[in-house]
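Example 9 (inverse folding). The structure is encoded as follows.
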C-alpha cells in the first residue's frame, strides 16, 4: 500500500514538471511535500506550480524554497571564494556539482537543492588542497582508514566540514569509487568550461564529461532522488557531442543510455533521434527498468539502517551496472589487503607487503571468528 502511494506521488511530481496540471485531493498535500523534499525538487516544483489551483501545496513549498535559496547563496559565495583561493595558491580544481552546477544548468544557484560543494583536484595536489581547506577552518571527517594505500583507488573523496558556516566540502581526486579507469584530470580540465559565480570564473566539467559524471553518479545511487534525473533533463537542453559521450564513458555507456531513457520517461526529455540504436540496447533498457524500484520507494541509501531487502537489491543492482571487465577487476581487488586485515594482524609498516600473500588466510580467519559463538554464551 505504501509503495503504491509513493508511486502515485512520484508520478504526480514528474507530471507537474513535464508541464501538466495533475489533479490532486487535499489529503495528498503533505505526502507530496515530503516527496518533493525527498527528491530534492522543491525549487523546481514551486516554480511550475505558481498559479496551480492547489494553493495549499504551493504555499507549503514557498518557505522551504526560500530557506534553500538563502543557503544556496551562502554556498555560492563559499564556492567562488574557494575557487579564488585555490587559483591563487596554484591548485587546479574542477567543480562537479553544487552551486556551479546549479548556475550552469538552471541559470540560478537557488534553483537546484544542494547541501555541499563537490570539487575535483589532481591526485598529486590532494594533500595541498586538504591543507588549504584546513587553513580556512575546515575539519576533516574521515570515513575510511588510510593505514594502507588502497584508499587512493577504492575511495574517491574526502569530506571536510566548517562548523561556523555549516558548509561541507567533498574533496575528490576521482570522479567515482574504484577500481576502474577514469579520464585523467588533465583530460577533464582541457575539456572544461567556465561558469561565473558572483563575477568569479569557476571551472566546471565540459558538457560530455558532465553527462558521464551525472549519469554514473545517479545510477550508483539507483536514481533514488529524481533531482539527478532532472539534472540530465536540463543538461540535454545544451549541445552535446554523443560520439564524445560514448568515448568518454567507454564500457559504462549503457548507464548513459539508461539515464536518457529514464529522463525521457519521467520528464519528457527530447532524446537524440540519431542515437536510437544506442538507447534501445538491452542492457540500457534493463538498467532503466531496475531503477524504478528506487523511485517507487522511500529509500535513503545513506541512512544508518537500510532494510535487508533494499541492501540486497542494491548490491545486485550495482553489480549489474558493471561491464564484465569491471566485474573481474572488482573481484581481483578483493585479493588486495583491506584495513581490517591490519586491525586483525598488525604488522610493521615496512613489511605491509606481506598482507598481499596472506590476505586469503586473514579473510578466512575473520569469517571463522564471526561464525564462532560469542564468549561466555
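The amino acid assigned to each position is listed next.
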Amino acid at each position: 500500500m505504501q509503495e503504491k502511494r509513493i508511486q502515485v506521488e512520484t508520478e504526480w511530481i514528474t507530471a507537474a514538471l513535464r508541464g501538466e496540471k495533475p489533479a490532486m485531493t487535499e489529503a495528498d498535500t503533505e505526502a507530496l511535500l515530503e516527496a518533493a523534499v525527498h527528491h530534492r525538487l522543491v525549487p523546481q516544483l514551486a516554480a511550475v506550480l505558481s498559479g496551480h489551483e492547489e494553493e495549499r501545496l504551493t504555499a507549503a513549498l514557498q518557505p522551504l524554497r526560500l530557506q534553500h535559496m538563502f543557503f544556496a547563496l551562502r554556498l555560492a559565495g563559499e564556492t567562488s571564494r574557494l575557487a579564488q583561493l585555490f587559483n591563487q595558491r596554484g591548485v587546479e580544481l574542477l567543480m562537479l556539482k553544487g552551486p556551479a552546477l546549479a548556475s550552469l544548468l538552471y541559470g540560478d544557484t537557488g534553483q537546484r537543492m544542494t547541501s555541499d560543494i563537490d570539487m575535483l583536484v589532481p591526485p598529486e595536489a590532494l594533500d595541498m588542497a586538504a591543507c588549504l581547506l584546513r587553513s580556512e577552518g575546515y575539519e576533516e571527517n574521515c570515513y575510511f582508514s588510510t593505514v594502507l594505500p588502497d584508499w587512493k583507488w577504492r575511495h574517491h573523496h574526502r569530506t571536510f566540514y566548517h562548523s561556523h558556516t555549516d558548509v561541507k566540502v567533498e574533496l575528490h581526486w576521482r570522479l567515482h569509487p574504484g577500481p576502474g579507469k577514469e579520464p585523467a584530470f588533465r583530460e577533464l580540465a582541457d575539456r572544461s568550461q567556465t561558469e561565473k559565480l558572483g563575477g568569479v570564473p569557476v571551472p566546471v566539467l565540459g558538457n560530455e564529461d558532465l553527462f558521464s559524471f551525472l549519469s554514473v553518479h545517479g545510477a550508483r545511487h539507483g536514481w533514488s532522488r529524481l533531482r539527478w534525473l532532472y539534472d540530465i533533463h536540463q543538461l540535454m537542453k545544451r549541445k552535446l557531442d554523443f560520439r564524445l559521450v560514448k568515448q568518454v564513458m567507454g564500457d559504462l555507456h549503457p548507464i548513459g543510455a539508461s539515464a536518457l531513457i529514464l529522463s525521457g520517461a519521467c520528464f519528457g526529455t527530447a532524446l537524440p533521434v540519431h542515437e536510437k540504436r544506442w538507447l534501445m540496447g538491452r542492457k540500457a533498457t534493463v538498467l532503466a527498468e531496475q531503477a524504478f524500484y528506487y523511485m517507487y520507494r522511500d529509500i535513503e541509501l545513506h541512512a544508518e539502517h537500510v532494510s535487508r531487502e533494499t541492501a540486497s537489491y542494491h548490491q545486485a543492482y550495482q553489480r549489474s551496472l558493471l561491464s564484465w571487465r569491471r566485474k573481474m577487476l572488482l573481484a581481483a581487488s578483493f585479493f588486495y589487503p583491506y584495513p581490517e586485515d591490519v586491525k586483525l594482524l598488525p604488522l610493521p609498516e615496512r613489511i605491509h607487503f606481506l598482507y598481499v600473500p596472506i590476505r586469503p588466510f586473514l579473510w578466512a580467519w575473520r569469517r571463522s571468528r564471526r561464525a564462532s559463538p560469542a564468549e561466555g554464551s
